[in-house]
Design goal:
Elements: E1 6-14, H1 18-26, H2 31-34, E2 38-43, E3 50-55, E4 63-73, E5 78-85, E6 87-98, E7 101-112, H3 115-119, H4 121-149
Antiparallel strand pairs: 1-7, 2-3, 3-4, 4-5, 5-6, 6-7
Amino acid sequence: MDPNHYRFRDTWRLPAPPAAVYAALEDVRRYPLWWPEIRAVRQTGTGSDSGEVLVRALLPYQLVIGLETVRRDPAAGVLEAAMSGDLTGWSRWTVSADGTGSRVLFEEDTRPGKPLLRRLALPLHPLFRANHAVLMRRGRRGLAAYLTAND
């Protein structure tokens, strides 16, 4: 097992139609409005397909993650981004219908780019995974509330 390699897979069920969920996930600039751990978003480059997010959950460190959209497919419900900076790898959202609401699959394959996180990977691996779980739980709750308020 490589302690510096993380694979995450989370499923959210939301009481909103897939098109509304997809639109909210596609608008990364608004993440700080509904996701408490996303502290700021900054556009980089000339297009809207690249930017940086500042992330901080429970552990006392902030991550600066560069994102560049590599796939945007509303018909398939897929958003995928390459990550650089303090985390490198990729992340993907897949939104599909689930009864009267939506099912959202989040997948991420990543490694720390920050040297300190790489050095602490082995002893703190369980804490890093727990930190991610909290971040995702709060993101799901925040998005559900955001979608309800903007319905």
